[in-house]
Amino acid sequence: MRRFLPTVLDTKRESILSKERSLAKAVTVAVIESPPITVWEITIPIVFIINFFRLKRTREIFTLNFLLTKKLALEATVDMIEKGQGKEEVIARIRDTTGDILASDTKEVYSQKIRQRQMKEIDLLIDHYRQLLEAEGKDYDSMMRNAYQTREKYAAFLGQLIQAEREVNRAAQQTVKSATASDLVSKMEKATERIRRAQAAKIFEINS
User: Fold this and answer.
1) Smallest Cα–Cα separation from 134: which of 145, 123, 121, 147?
2) How distant, in Å, are the alpha carbons of 97, 128, 168, 184 from that of 78?
3) How far apart are the first and last CA of the chain?
4) Which of 62, 98, 117, 194 has the fewest CB atoms nearer than 10 Å to its CB?
5) Between 112-133 and 8-31, two packed helices, what is the crossing angle to 10 degrees?
6) Which segments of the chain have a pLDDT < 70?
7) Dihedrals φ, ψ of 49, to 5°?
8) Which of 34, 130, 23, 38 is closest to 76 using CA atoms?
9) Looking at residue 134, what is its pLDDT?
10) Three-state SS string across 36-89, please?
């Protein structure tokens, strides 16, 4: 039977996804900066339009890639709560999904090593999202405060997540082997950590 009204779980899921999407977009802007406007873009408007849409498309792709593991983990967590599925069951399904991505990668950009590191990140995220989804509150900040209680407890989880994401990034660098990869990864990691810690400070400031 089709549902017409969102459940509490739906509301919580959308709140978490919205926050993750907001983070992804903020990191994207920090990593992929807008180039200065050239004289040709001023003189010939079509040049500006083409460059603008090229930049917009690049940022959209980066955002989607950044969100991949988060969305897989969140949907799996929702299935665990809503459908009573076990963690091993949803992990196996994600392993199949990423395996299909690996098998279809003709350019050999996505490696087995990246996939293995991503599975560790996803395992952490599932536990994190389950804490949020089962906590009191419907908005993200309330769920965070009720799930972790203190900024220090959240910081402990965040340290684990940052390390897991770094391992994914290192595996990606080894696969891509680009001269600019190291700089881009460094910018991405610094921006992600800075934004997350600023969010945490704001969320938990009433408890400090």
Assistant:
1) 147
2) 17, 12, 24, 32
3) 46
4) 194
5) 130
6) 1-5, 34-56, 58-59, 178, 206-208
7) -60, -45
8) 130
9) 96
10) CCCHHHHHCHHHHHHHHHHHHHHHHHHHHHHHHHHHHHHHHHHHHHHHCCCHHH
Q: Cα dist. 103→15, 69, 73 in Å?
A: 33, 18, 21
Separation of alpha carbons 72 and 164, rounded Å: 16
pLDDT of residue 40: 46
Q: What is the pLDDT of residue 30?
A: 85
Token output for 187: 């910018």
Check: CB of residue 117 under 8 Å from CB of residue 171.
yes
What distance lies between CA 164 and its chain's CA centroid?
A: 12
Say what the pLDDT of residue 10 is: 93
Q: In terms of Cα–Cα distance, which of 78, 65, 168, 158 is closest to 115?
A: 168
Torsion of CA 54, 57, 61, 64, to 10 degrees: 160
CA dihedral 160, 166, 167, 168 (to 10 degrees): 110
- The CA radius of gyration of the chain, in Å to the nearest whole number, is 19
For residue 87, which amino acid is it?
K
- Specify the 3-state DSSP secondary structure of 118: helix
Dihedral pair phi/psi, residue 50, rounded to 5°? -65, -45
Q: Give me 114's structure tokens.
A: 């990246």
- Determine how many CB atoms are found less than 10 A away from the CB of residue 103: 9
What length is written for the chain?
Answer: 208
